[in-house]
């Protein structure tokens, strides 16, 4: 077995698809964390079931929402908190830190298979930034 045998066995990456501004009905496929060289990320992967944006149609491909948690003074932590509160249907004051651990737990996977409404806005046109607003169904 050669030095790069693991590369030969890996599935080729097709690149990530992200949500564009619009209104969506989605099915959550995965919620996970990634702690890499650029810091901690919170990732929600979802399949679009309905869309009002023709550039981001309903199909079988998975799209991602990636939240950077490496900068704790930025909006990322609040965005993750809002996602979990909205998906759980709880008030912000009822949020507990352990809910993030549970959300990204691959065995428990409390949000996988659930449908949600997603509104994506572009508050800074021309910048690589979108605001995602989730609500449970």
Note the beta-strand portion: 35-45%
Instruction: List the uncertain runs.
Output: none
Helix content: 10-25%
Q: Count the E strands.
A: 5
Order of helices and strands: HEEEHHEE
* Assembly category: single chain
Q: What is the radius of gyration computed over CA atoms, rounded to a whole number of angstroms?
A: 16 Å
Q: Can you tell me about this structure?
A:
It is built from three helices and five strands; from the N terminus they run αβββααββ. With 137 residues, the chain is an alpha+beta fold. Helices cover 18% and strands 35% of the residues. It has helices at residues 5-9, 76-88, 98-104, and strands spanning 22-36, 39-51, 62-68, 115-121, 131-136. A five-stranded antiparallel beta sheet has the order 3-2-1-4-5.
Task: Give the helices and strands, then pairings.
Layout: H1 5-9, E1 22-36, E2 39-51, E3 62-68, H2 76-88, H3 98-104, E4 115-121, E5 131-136
Antiparallel strand pairs: 1-2, 1-4, 2-3, 4-5
Features:
single chain, 3 helices, 18% helix, globular
Brief write-up:
This protein is an alpha+beta fold. The protein is built from three helices and five strands; from the N terminus they run H-E-E-E-H-H-E-E.
């Amino acid at each position: 077995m050669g030095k790069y045998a693991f590369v030969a066995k890996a599935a080729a990456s097709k690149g990530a698809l992200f949500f564009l501004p619009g209104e969506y009905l989605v099915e959550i496929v995965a919620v996970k964390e990634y702690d890499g060289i650029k810091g901690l990320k919170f990732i929600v992967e979802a399949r679009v079931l309905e869309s009002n944006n023709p550039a981001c149609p309903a199909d079988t491909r998975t799209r991602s929402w990636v939240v950077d948690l490496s900068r704790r003074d930025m909006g990322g932590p609040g965005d993750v908190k809002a996602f979990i509160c909205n998906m759980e249907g709880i008030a912000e004051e009822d949020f507990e830190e352990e809910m993030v651990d549970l959300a990204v737990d691959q065995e428990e996977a409390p949000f996988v298979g659930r449908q949600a409404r997603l509104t994506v806005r572009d508050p800074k046109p021309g910048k690589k930034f979108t605001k995602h607003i989730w609500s449970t169904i």
